[in-house]
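Components:
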Amino acid sequence: MRFIATRLLHSLFVLWAVVTLMFLMFRLMPGDPMAAYISEALSEESKQSIRAQFGLDRSLPEQYLFYLLNLVRGELGMSFFMKEPVWDIVMGALPNTLILTLSGLVIAYAFGVIAGAYLAWKRGSVTEGVVIPVVLATRAAPEFWVGMIMLALFAFHLGWFPSGGAASPGAMYDSEWGRIFSVDFLKHLALPVLTLALYLQGLPLLLMRSTMLDVLHEEYVNMARMKGLTTRRIVLNHAARNALLPVSTAFALSMGQLVGGNVVVEIVFSWPGLGRILVQAVSASDYPLAQGAFLLVAVALITMNLLADLLYALLDPRVSHERQN
Amino acid sequence: MNARTDPPGSALQKILRVTGRDPYALAGIAIYLIFGLTALFANVIASHDPLEILFLPDGRVAANQSPGGAFWLGTTNMGRDVFSQLVHGARSALMVGLSAALMVVIVGTLVGLFSGYFGGWVDSTLMRLGDIALSIPFLPFIIVLAAFLKPNVWNVVIGVAVLLWPNTGRIVRSQVLTLRERSYVEAAKVSGASHLSILFTHIAPNVLPISFLYGSIVVGWAIFTEASVSFLGFGPTDSVSWGFMLQDAFVSQALSRGAYYWFLPSGACIMLMVSAGFFISRGYEELLFPKLRD
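Structure:
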């Protein structure tokens, strides 16, 4: 319990620090944040009233206080360009990002875990010498480049998949679930997910392989061997189960990083997610929207980091026990 | 005297020994060397000016030429030579990679040294700062930074340095923790050496090889990040980088025209460079990630 509380406090502290840093970045950077919003044609009085509306006529500490209070209330302001509440815009984009991220992760981890376990079992074979450099190369290939190849090949050349977006023009659905499970949506989802999964599978694969190799040297595996269990059973029941611990932590960590890290994949495939919103907002100097999108991405990252830590403690009692003493 | 000169030699020797023995380390270094030479002699190797609009003998703009003849890798839709862009791209890639790595090494090493040597509140403050840096979304932060600071290569360098120092800092710190207890450090203390002189003449030389090894991984990361930022359109427009080439190809319909010669090579170069970082970190695994004693 105490471990959870300390970790929670720590996360809150980090969140506060990131939020403050963001405030300073957006306020102290050169350039008037309102330059894009206030037209030169407006009278001095209307300019002032708009400034007052956004609280920009107050002192910096006052602005900071209002900013924190608004954040606590979930008030992110209005987008300069879309003239809609930032909250609505980012929440509208979040499901698309989450679906893309989760499907990519699940495919990557399912493949990575199995392939990693197999490679650990076949340690030292020729395949291992070829496969590992190839896996490292897939992690080194920029996702947007892989996405470009996929688009050129499967969308433009072969015409199997649409070349971008999340829906065909004119597509209408009764509900959000109806949209997500429509064939049209899944067709749009296929290439971005494949691109993401290809990039992500390397980490679980290598992690699974190296932890399994460690585990295979532990006492209880020797014990199992002495009990006369077959290699297959030892690998599956004993080694694989324990090797899953770091893999599941890595899953949670990747989830957090990807909500913001997906940016390039979303841009290549014009996927209407959070990362694309962020890029568009930054290009258009839409500060409230950029700030809101960045905040949501940071919250996702910090929450998943916390979750990964708690998960680790839960799955590996050695950790929580050690921390308590 | 002996004790003072021996440890730095041994750390370096360990690195040299692994280099000779491990194929990964060797491959990584070879890739870095090849790209390094390409960057150095870019002017000689490139067949054309990378940004010059080229013409065919009959006076037409040499746009969208397939590979072959005067244009080894073809030309862009604006009539620029892809091969020359690729060669010059190595130069900007290495510049970004090396400067980012150097900054990470400097900041990370200093933090690790102070944190590990002084301990107490210095240590907890610096490590807490590291936690915060690692909790900032990496690419979004650099995008926001690049947007505020106007397109410039240094945005990526600064961003990478600000966010990636904690990794190096932690490794150096754990090294310093053990070095601090060594007898020659004790001896220096007894003989009245100041904290700073102990840190920089006795301890720092021992951790520098590890810092630089860690820096070599950052090279790849910085190049990867620079490519992403340029691809998103927040990079400098006056110099040629691999990310810039990919963005150029992407927005100029190279995909629908199937102009693979335009966008395959630059992405492959990024992949090779980043792989080299991975190969090096894999080759030197035992030196980089020493298992901490229970």
